[in-house]
# Entry
Amino acid sequence: MKLLFALALLLPATLSAQTNTPPSGGVIIWTKGVPPEGITHKDDFGNHILSISHRESNGRVEVHQTKADVFVIQSGEADLVTGGEILEPVKTAENELQGSSIRGGVRRHVSAGDVIHIPVGVPHQFFLAPGTQITYLVVKVVDPDHAAH
# Structure
């Protein structure tokens, strides 16, 4: 609960950076944790982005060079590997890399209710057992110290 409170302090009171300012003074509610526009929708507020991710298979390694990730696991379970070195990195967007695997990372099992913070620049990858799935809220927080470079 303390982490969620701390996260709330990071987010601005207004959503002036959003292009389509919603009614009700900028407040957005995702009933049952799903954007009204559907699971593939992302809300971009300039200094943070909200989205939902759903996986039914292993992910690729990701490294965000200007954004930290906060994941709130809504359902399911997986192993999350973090840290180490990204192998076969490919630039997929500005300040974004993906790779085939991680060498020297730490593997942790995560499941519904877990809250995860991944700092800027840390490789991370989800692994799912056959027949399992995971759904999680993603908050991408732009790090102004890294974004300015």
